Amino acid sequence: MIAFNKKTLASLGIGLIFSAVAMYFTFVNIPLRDLAAYLGQINYWWIIPSLLIAFLSYIIRVWRWQIILLPVKRSGFWSAFHPLVIGFMLNCILPGRVGEIARPAIYYKRENVEFSKALGSAGMERVMDAVSLLAFFIYILATISIDPSFDITFAGYHLTPSVLDTIWKTTLQISLVLVALIVFISIPKTRGLLNRFILSTPGALFFLGDHTRERITEGVCRKATLVLDNLSVGFDILKSPGYLILCLVQSFVLWWLLGLSLYVLSLGCPGIHITILQAFAVEIIVSFFITLPSVPGFWGLWEAGGVFGLMIFGVPAQEAAGMTLTYHFFHLIPVIIVGLISSMIIGMSISQTAHNGHEALQMAEEAENAEADRRTITRNKS
Length: 382
Fold this sequence. Notes:
Blueprint: H1 6-27, H2 32-39, H3 47-68, H4 77-93, H5 99-111, H6 115-143, E1 152-154, E2 157-159, H7 161-186, H8 188-200, H9 210-234, H10 241-266, H11 276-289, H12 301-312, H13 317-345, H14 350-381
């Protein structure tokens, strides 16, 4: 039996609220009988090519992670593949997105590398995803033509061309800040300045006692600097322009493949006529939605993002809900199956795999505390 800690249970509770609210607003105006009838009209043979294209995106993810791991260790394809798919599988079946930590933890155990470095490489992969998604989102909002009279209501909010224009400008600003932060962190001298600033902030809280300020320094500031240093391990690939360009190209390709996968499935869905670029836009919107807390498998938020995105391009809510549910279900099950097969191949039982996901959270804290102690001793000696 798997025991959940308080943080995981709290995460599950918050996720349940977000997912329930998203599910309610998505389906409140869609008659379930009509939705069931529409699901019966879908040509499910289109799921096969859709899944094959999506699987290619996971292959590219593995290759990209291999490159990001180069400063840590040169890894074979299967050494990176098994932890990656197991991590995705755990995100589908366990709360708290423990798969994000389980992936570097499994790699650390199997490859005998520093856990903090493996964790930093996984963090860098997420940064690559964020950069590519934001770049694509800016491009799509700037190029897709929207009817001036366009106005849809979703969850009580009105979406108009002026709102989309505001979103486009805000996304561009966020992207520029993110790129600047990546460059700032990747340079040792500027990262050192940022770390010193973070460590000095408790001193400005003069109205607090010495003991409280020390607790803030040790419990918050030092952990924040460790996170930056761990991420900098992944940023080591920035020192090689060739590897950086290759990783960015891989990031763009894998997200384009996911958009293509959604488009291929739409060919089997009656009443849905979208272009590849529009399908890609919907995939990006879904990706933004599922960054919010949710239940395992992102149920509710995935549907909300898919329906919302498809409605922007004129797809009726019922058809949008049917296609989104189909895409979500048939793309989630293979991830779970492949993840479980990988667990068996590397000799981990299902319960052991799930346990490792929670164990990884404690492992991350222990690694951070050990690194903090090492730095304290080094600083005292100097």
